[in-house]
Amino acid sequence: MNIWQTTQQAVQLLFSGDSALWGIVGVSFSVSLLAIAIVLIPSLLIAFTLAYGKFPGRWLTLSFINTLQSVPTVVIGLLLYMLLSRSGPLGDWQMLFTQRAMVLGQILICLPILISMMHAAFQNSDRRAWETAISLGASYPRALMSLMWESRFPLLAAIVASFSRIITEVGCSMMVGGNILNSTRNIPTAIALESSKGAFAQGVALGMVLLILALGLNFILSISRGKAHLRTN
């Protein structure tokens, strides 16, 4: 089968409402969106504290977080597997090979990315926005909201980058999810499985979903920045 025929079959799968394919897409999005939602506010607060706070060990903490970004996802999956297996210290939780384990793994993957990129956003922001809000009597949450509004585009870019990373990772999801059909099989693990079997049509279709997602997210970012640039001119 040539590339053109495979692509045609992939497009047919996408538009035919194939339940198996869209079930896989649903697992990917539900797991990744839940992971990013859980970690978003803690990451924001930690990043702000590292950028504006002054305490011993601040730069050591930031260096450790930056180092965690380079840990391979399969290593994170292996560590979680050992923790969540029956013989592991968290075996009583019975989370292994479940979507909850996948969410936990993706939280560990995107947490350092979010903190690092949000920290950079706050570091490059105008500190006068925070100082002015505080001097005018605004509460700390309200002042933080003002600062977030000033840094909204790099913060949004951090969220997009983190979401893109976790929805496309395969190592951790394979280790702790088990690639179980109709349960923990997501887009990256399904692509790996179908490609290994020589059934490329579904893999190409799922790849198209990821490509459309990437184009859509980048389009939203570009439009937002473009409108902001027009308002400032």
Shape: globular
Assign a percent range to the helix content.
over 70%
Mean pLDDT: 89
Tell me the Rg in angstroms: 21 Å
Q: How does the major sheet shape up? A: none
Number of strands: 0
Distance between the termini: 54 Å
- Low-confidence segments, given as residue ranges, are none
Task: Bin the strand percentage.
Answer: under 5%
- The DSSP helix count reads 11
Order of SSEs, N→C? HHHHHHHHHHH
Which structural class best describes the helix and strand composition? Answer: mainly alpha
Question: Which features characterize this protein?
Answer:
single chain, transport, transmembrane helix, 11 helices, transmembrane, 233 residues, globular, 0% strand, mainly alpha, membrane
Give an account of the 3D structure.
79% of the residues lie in helices and 0% in strands. It is built from eleven helices and no strands. Helix 2 (19-52) crosses helix 8 (152-168), helix 5 runs antiparallel to helix 8 (152-168) and helix 10 runs antiparallel to helix 11 (200-232). The mean pLDDT is 89.
SSE topology:
Layout (H helix, E strand, L loop, with lengths): L2 H13 L3 H34 L5 H11 L4 H12 L14 H25 L3 H9 L4 H11 L1 H17 L2 H7 L9 H11 L2 H33 L1
Helix pairs in contact: 1-11, 2-5, 2-8, 3-5, 4-5, 4-9, 5-8, 5-9, 6-7, 8-11, 10-11
In short:
This protein is mainly α and 233 residues long. 79% of the residues lie in helices and 0% in strands.
